[in-house]
Amino acid sequence: MDATSFCGALPQTKLSVSNRNFSSSCPRVRSVVSVARHSSEEFQQPDKLYSRESLVVSSSSSANKEMTASGRSYLSGPVLKRNPGGQAFCAASVLGVGAYCEGFVDSHLHVTEEKVGVLLLNLGGPETLNDVQPFLFNLFADPDIIRLPRPFQFLQKPLAKLISVLRAPKSKEGYASIGGGSPLRKITDEQADGIKMALKAKGLTANVYVGMRYWYPFTEEAIHQIKKDKITKLVVLPLYPQFSISTTGSSLRVLQNIFSEDAYLSRLPIAIIQSWYQREGYIKSMADLIGEELQKFAKPEEVMIFFSAHGVPLTYVEDAGDPYKDQMEECIYLIMQELKARGSYNDHTLAYQSRVGPVQWLKPYTDEVLVELGQKGVKSLLAVPVSFVSEHIETLEEIDMEYKELALESGIENWGRVPALGCTSSFITDLADAVIEALPSAKSISTTRSTSEESDHDFLSYAIKMIFGSVLAFVLLLSPKVMTAFRNRLF
Ligand SMILES: C=CC1=C(C)c2cc3[nH]c(cc4nc(cc5[nH]c(cc1n2)c(C)c5CCC(=O)O)C(CCC(=O)O)=C4C)c(C)c3C=C
Ligand SMILES: [Fe+2]
Q1: 345 and 212 part of one domain
Q2: CB–CB of 367/403 below 8 Å?
């Protein structure tokens, strides 16, 4: 990337990025990624977001093959593309080249100081055992976590209350076993500080905010602070390497709702990095950690590398077009390629953990595969948590305690676990690079509401849905499958 080409006046009109197609580098992912043409496509209406087509549009693949500064071989992070004219932002200093551009010329020809903000999105976790049930309520009240058909959506909150109360004792046990709360907030705050420092070292002064989806500091609080600080350009960076409707998609939906109803925010230029699992820095950082842990085994070459990703219900992928599974497989492929390039030819496998409720989730399931591997005679296994970048309940309790015990019982003798990336410096530096690369594509969102949302406000159709919905929901709740799930405490 030609660094000097970034510095200049802010364009007076919104940029539009030309529509180009790129193929994924991974043989397993054959879908074609097309780059969005309009700014509104970056910040999609919920209905649109979940169509297979628009999710693919939102994948970050390959557009960045073009944009990497150093001609790296991996695809890099931000979803969308560079500024086609290259004239929009004062990023020269960011790359340590050229003059530091401290201001931009606004539409009234006044020089205004640029204030860059970075918003990190994450899930959040209960900090005390008393927080567990309300945290679970927030999680299950999210229509991106429990996806009810439209006529049943009025049941979301009562159902969330019921499930959160039923699940709380089991979850509390888990949180109690890791010290009484989630470490996610502390780690995410440290990552935020790290990214701020890495950006500073690269010449970009930015405020870095943390917005959690289900616990403090909530996304709404972060946005409030962003407004207070009068940020003039925002990069949104979800701390999930792979996009899922249930994680990044859910957080973006919250942002969209807030932004579309606020005059200042809807004009704020914003760039969203929707997934970054294929960035060179991330892949190499993962390979570094795996390589280090492999060396702790007596015979590193005989160790099975066991990637364990958080699962999602199968319908997300099969019906709603969630790209999560494809992105996960591509991610594993890239990590294994990197390990091979370093001379490690270990066997590997991918399985999905943490399923909740009576529905089918992505397979194979981690617990089942561990038992099978033990039965097949695998003796050494290195677990790699791959959908998370911080330690939390599902690494510290589920993998380190439950799965380790199961593996040892199943015949696996040597167990290891790769730590989550946390504040690993190569990783934090790469996230800072992703922010810098994304900045030029920042555009303000469209505030147009979809017609389907408007129709929700139509009283007559709402009343009809309520009546039929209530009857159907009652029947559904009494169905044997749901009752069995409750009895077995699957929730
Ligand atoms: C890629 C990451 C994650 C996906 C995908 C995801 C989907 C998903 N999760 C649930 C239900 C629960 N998740 C819980 C905790 C939790 N989930 C993630 C990440 C993903 N979830 C993280 C990082 C955490 C831990 C937060 C922390 O406290 O440290 C929980 C609570 C814990 C428990 O009771 O097990 C639930 C419940 C669903 C239903 C879902 C997809 C639809
Ligand atoms: Fe989860």
Answers
A1: no
A2: yes
How many angstroms is it from 69 CA to the middle of ligand 2? 35
The pLDDT of residue 315 is 96
ipTM of the complex: 0.94
Look at residue 446 and tell me if it is in a domain. no
Distance CA 350, CA 364 (A): 8
249 lines ligand 1 (CB under 6 A): no
Please give the tally of structural domains in the chain. Answer: 3
Q: Is the torsion defined by CA of 337, 416, 312, 191 positive or negative? A: negative
Same domain, 272 and 284: no
> Does the beta carbon of 275 lie inside 6 Å of ligand 1?
no
Q: Are residues 112 and 150 in the same domain?
A: no
Q: Which ligand is nearest to the CA of 311?
A: 1
Angle at 390 between CA 119 and CA 224, to 5 degrees: 25
pLDDT digits (tens, 9 = 90+) for 14-58: 222 222 222 333 333 323 222 222 233 232 222 323 222 222 223
Q: Is the CB of 398 under 6 A from ligand 1?
A: no
User: Inter-axis angle of helices 324-341 and 280-294, to 10 degrees?
Assistant: 60
The ligand 1 atom at the shortest distance from the C-alpha of residue 181 is 28
Exposed, middle or buried: residue 21 (CB in 10 Å: 0-12, 13-18, 19+)? exposed
Using pLDDT thresholds of 50, 70 and 90, give the confidence band for residue 143. very high
Domain identity same for 74 and 192 = yes
| pTM of the predicted structure, to 2 decimals | 0.75
